Amino acid sequence: MTDVLTATYELYLAEGESPEGKARGIALEQTVEMPADCLPGDIAERMVGRIRTLEPRADHWVLEIDYPLAAIGGELTQCLNLLFGNISLQSGIRLVQVAWPPSLLRRWGGPGLGVSGLRARLDVGARPLLCAALKPMGLSAPALAARCAAFARGGVDLIKDDHGLADQPDAPFAERLNACQDAVRQANRRSGGRSLYLPNVTAAPQALGERLAAARDAGCEMVLISPWLTGLETLRWARDEYGLALMAHPAMTGGLFLPRHGISPALLLGELFRIAGADAVIYPNVGGRFRFSADTCQAINHALRRPLEGLASAWPTPGGGVDVKRAGHWKQAYGPDTILLIGGSLYAQGDIEAASRALMQAIRD
Amino acid sequence: MTDVLTATYELYLAEGESPEGKARGIALEQTVEMPADCLPGDIAERMVGRIRTLEPRADHWVLEIDYPLAAIGGELTQCLNLLFGNISLQSGIRLVQVAWPPSLLRRWGGPGLGVSGLRARLDVGARPLLCAALKPMGLSAPALAARCAAFARGGVDLIKDDHGLADQPDAPFAERLNACQDAVRQANRRSGGRSLYLPNVTAAPQALGERLAAARDAGCEMVLISPWLTGLETLRWARDEYGLALMAHPAMTGGLFLPRHGISPALLLGELFRIAGADAVIYPNVGGRFRFSADTCQAINHALRRPLEGLASAWPTPGGGVDVKRAGHWKQAYGPDTILLIGGSLYAQGDIEAASRALMQAIRD
C-alpha cells in the first residue's frame, strides 16, 4: 500500500483500559482529535487512522494503525506530530515501527552523503572512521584549535565540537570556527590527510542559519547539530540550503526512551534522523555512562544502514567505550560502516597526537 | 548570586549508584563532558557545575547545582542543553526547578503581550478567555472558515487551528489562513467583536518563516506553534522577527513527564515556554484524556503567572473538561487570567454559534 503510513505501537494498559478503546483513542487523537460521532460527512472514513491489527503479547498489546497520507501532507514535522505528538502526553504507548510510503521517503530524501559519499570524500576504504570530540568548554578558541591540529596530525578522520560548545565567551562560535577549521586545514596540508572539522551549529533559528552559512563559507563540509533542540527538520534545511553533511547528536531525546512509553531508539535515532537528512547519528554505546542495551545499539545500526527506498545509508556513531584495547572489538561487533566516537579517553593519555595515531593504527589493523 | 544558574534535580538511584557519584557525574556531564582529572588549567574551577546541596528525601535525593553562566553564553538553546541535554539519556534524573539569573531572563524576554497585553488587545475585562479549536482535519478551507465565522459570531475570544492542521491537501495552509482570517474579520465587523484567528504555523524552518510572514501579512495577531517539534527558540524568533503573539502547544513534550525522570511540567511548559516567548501555553487539564494531576495543573498556572524579573505573565490554557456546566468551576479554580480551551464539546452540540454563545455567557456570569 502506498496511500497509507502504517505505524506500530506497543500498548501497556492501565487498570480500566481496554485494548480496543485505547487503540481507537489513538486513531482519533492523532488525526481528527474529536469523537467519531461528531465528524461531518465522510471524514471518519477518509481521515481517521484505521486499526489494522491489535494483538496480545505477554505484558502488552501490539497495535498497527494505517494513517491516511492526507493527514500528513508532505511535511516531516506534521508526520512526527501525527505519529506521537499528543499521545506523548498519554501513558503506556510506545511507537516502535513505521512502514514508510515511498513517496514520502523520496520527498524527504535522507542523507546527502551517507556512508559511501562520506567515505569517498575522505578517501577512506572499508574501515570504521574515528571521530574525536573537541573539548572541554572553557578553553579559548586557539587552545581548542591546537587540539584540533593534534587530532588531525594523529590522523583522526572527523573532529567534532563537543555538543555543549555553542557561543560561550571563552570560545565564541565564529572565532572557534575559523581557528579550528584553519588548524585542521593546515595540518591536512602538511600531512596529506583529509581530516574534517565539524563545528556545532545548534542554536536558535536565525543563529543556526548564520552558523550554517559561516561553516560552509569557512570550508567546512560537515557540521554537528542536535535536532531535538533545534527541530528535526533543521537537518533537511541544513542539507538543502547549505549543502552540508550532518552529524546528529541525541541531546534531549532521552525522555522518549524509558520503558513502556515513548519512541524506540532505533526508530527515532535510526530511521527518523536518517530520513530527515543525518549522514551520521551519535548514540550512547552500550556499557558507557548511559543506558542503551547491546540489542538497542545493533537495532539503531540496522535502522541507519538498511535498504530504504534508495535513501543513502547513514553512519552509526556509537560514543563511549572505545580505546586502543577495545577498538578491535567494536570494529568486529559493528562492522566497517561505523564511526567510532571517542571522548575523554584520548585526552586522558596526555599526548593527543600520539594517542590518536595509536588508536587510528588499531582501527586500521 | 547573578553569575550562576542554579538547577534543582531529583535523583532516583539505581542499585550501585551513590548520590554523590551521580551528582558529580551530572555536574561534569552537562558542562565539560570529561573526567575532572583530565581538565587543563583552571577549567575544573571555572566551568564544572558546583554541587550546592545534596539532601535525602523519602525515596530520592534532591541536588542543587550551580552552573557558571560561562557554560551557557546567552543562548536559550544551549541553556536547555546544559540543563538536561545529555542526562536525558541517563536514568532517574528529574529537573524540577531553576533559579534564573536576571541577566538571562532580560535577554530572552518572555511573552511579547502576556496576560495584560492580550487582555487590552481584546478589550476584555477580568474574566477567563475562551479559545475554540478549529477542526477536524479533512474539512476544506471554506468549511473550516465557516466554523470560524460561527465561533466568532458566538463571541469566542480566540479560534485556533487544531495543532494537526498543517499543510494537508484538504485545507492547504495559505488557503486556510486567508479563508479563516477573512471569515473572522467579517464576523467581527458585523458584531463589533474582537475575536482572533490563530493559524498553526508549526513546520520546518523555512516553511515556518514563510507561514509566520503570511500570518502577519494576513492581519493575524497571534499564532499557534508546537515548540517541541520546531525547537523552543522558534518562539523568540516568531516574537521578535514577526511581532506575533504566541500560543504554544505541548505536542511531543510528554516523554519528559513520566515519573522519576525528565523535566517537571511546570518548569518546561510553565517557565521555559514562557521565558522563550509564549503568551499562552496549552496543557492537558486534569480529568481529561491525559495524565496531569490537579496539583500539576496549578503548578503550571503558577509558573506562567508568577513574578519573574519583570517578564510579562502568560496565560495558562488548560484543554479539556470545559463545558457550560463546568465553566463556573474552572473559572473559580483557575481564576480570571486563564484561557479555557474547548475542543470537541462545542461541536457535539451541533449549532456551534449557539453553543459558543451559551458557553461565553457561562464564562461571563
TrEMBL record, chains A, B:
EC number: 4.1.1.39
UniProt GO MF annotations: magnesium ion binding; ribulose-bisphosphate carboxylase activity
Gene Ontology biological process terms from the UniProt entry: carbon fixation
SUPFAM superfamilies noted in UniProt: RuBisCo, C-terminal domain, RuBisCO, large subunit, small (N-terminal) domain
Pfam families reported for this sequence: RuBisCO_large (PF00016)
Domain Ribulose bisphosphate carboxylase large subunit C-terminal: 114-293
Enzyme class: lyase
Alphabetic keyword roster: Lyase
Protein's UniProt keywords contain Signal: no
Protein name (database record): Ribulose-1,5-bisphosphate carboxylase/oxygenase large subunit
Organism, as annotated: Alkalilimnicola ehrlichii (strain ATCC BAA-1101 / DSM 17681 / MLHE-1)
